[in-house]
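Re: folding output
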Amino acid sequence: MTDRAGARTSTAPRAGPDAVPFGRYGAFLRRNGAIVVLALILGVSAGALRTAFTDRTYTSTVEIFAPAVALHSGASVTAILPATPATGDQDPPSESTMDTEAQLALSEKALAPLAKVRGFPADRVALRKRITVTVPAYTRVLTLQVRAADAKTARDGARALTRSYLALRKEIIAGIQARNRQAVARNLSLLRAELHAIDGKPTDIARLTARGRRQVITKQIGVMQRQLAQTEDRTLQSGEVVNSPEVPLRADDSRGDVGLSTGLGVGLLAGLLLGLIQDRRPRRIRTAADVRRVGALPVLAEARDRPDLLRDACRRLRNIIHEEQATTVLLTGVAEAPTEQVARMLASVCALGGTSTMLLRVGVDADENVVAGPAAGVNGANGAVESHRGADATEGVTVRTIPSGGDRQLSAAVRKARRESDLVVITGPPLHSSDTATFATICDLTFLTVELGRVSADELIWNTTYLAYTAAPARGLVLIDPANQRRRS
């Protein structure tokens, strides 16, 4: 239902309490977009410079086939026979693993010839960092990668490491297999001697018949003979080079994409962090948009440097005064913002519009504003200095200077000014003075002047709140261009 014809009820959905305020993020990026973009550019530049100035390296690769080698025979060295024969009591020979091969490639004896190659450091820790050992899955191919500052040095280093590794492997494996052959041959001789003893004295063996004992020993002799044959077959298996090291055709990838992406990420985080810090700091009011963003009071006019623009701003203030039918107007500045010029122009514009206007200046010494001549006079009742023409007078406006005082004295001066003119414009007292509180209470309208670039957002909010709680809220703000003040100074 509607209250009247043609009226429609708004059906726009309202945001819930858990709605994400995306507009705040957009406003944050608009306020700090320059900082974020600059941080991104610096981060990407740092990543690019790091990539560009990183020392180039060349890698030479060699692949070596390392066959499995039995590290021990797998049979017990003792020839004492068990009381009861057991099947499967002999372990198979243990073979070398690829982890063992990698440790041999990085051992001290294998690295010693590589350290003598020109271009490689003598320090073993730094030398091991230049070598990468990898093994493909389910293979016995050892891949050695040697890095150096130039391609030829990398090739020479890979060759030296390959030769030293193969020589060390052959030396170690030859010693291991020699000991294995000796152990197997010794066990075989013991078994044969025991078999010969059984044939000669079959009655000396306790709890076994001669026939069963002979079968057990014969079986063990066969196992030992097979192990000895396997050991002799693998004696010369020292390893073969599958792919010889060659001179690298191009330098290693410097991971430029990683540097750029890292710089981009770090720059983005730094930009957002700087933006958050910038947002938490008190921002200065530099434009009218900053004032509207703060939302303290509406902006009624902007006083620019040019006289015609200042006059236009005062005309807007005059229209507000006529609309409100005000007879007394107070102009005071936030953080000592200049109000004298705006008050004079406002009084002049109101006088040109046909309104009898008086300008009251508060807190200025009377000796500085007395204009010599028959038009100037001193009011003995309240000590006010009055001027109608001259350097201190505005055309068509009565300018009166009154000293700071108590509430009764200021109220009496304002009542007298009302009887003598239709509009009274008051300026001069600081915002946080008792005079301003008195005038804001008895005046119909209060305008606050704000100098752009000098007042922070927190300071503006605090001053407007102070005035609202101590006296009466201001009607609005009048912005003053700081360029005007710099030119006058």
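--- second protein (sequence, then structure) ---
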Amino acid sequence: MTTIIAEPTDNAQPTVGHPVSAIAETVEAITGRIRVEVPTLAAKMTPAQLHSVIAESVSKLLAAQLPGCPTWCVTKHDDDVLGDPGWHEGPKVEALAPIPFADAHTDDGASIVLAARVVQVNQDSRIFGVTTEVWVDVDTETLELNVEQTGQLIGRLEDFLPKLRAVRDQLAAASVGDYPEDEVAVAKWRAQSAEEVRLRRVELGELPAEAQR
């Protein structure tokens, strides 16, 4: 399989690499060495120790940056789920909220308002081509943007910031008269509401006799 790799530089032209053949050669070299050395190692180690040594060596091979992997890629290619050699992700940048979302658990910490990273899909490129985009996560939704669209989003965010500052200033003026709740009054209101609900359920026959007292 021939893979076209576009490096993100101003004057770079796509180059042609052969990652599959290069990996095959490396695997064959390691396999040949294992064939030679396993009898010697087996005489010195238990089967479990020998298995551990081989597994560690293979893991290091898979964890290494694959031939043709972009220099900006941070994907762990030995991962069972995300280790596809045709899938590349750059470092993620995030904009955090000062508090969790309103429907989030208070122990979850600051919520991520925006997150973005470069994603390249380069699987069977002679059939499907190569697609490189900026993926922007907005809560549970994702925007998949090209360069022009990313620029448009940046421009709209820059336009939004002065408006957000104006809303903040409006909040500062509007919230001058705010004051906290009366905790005692709130507790009394909740108890009264709960009792009203209980009595209503009694009237409707929704509660067993022991719960009607």
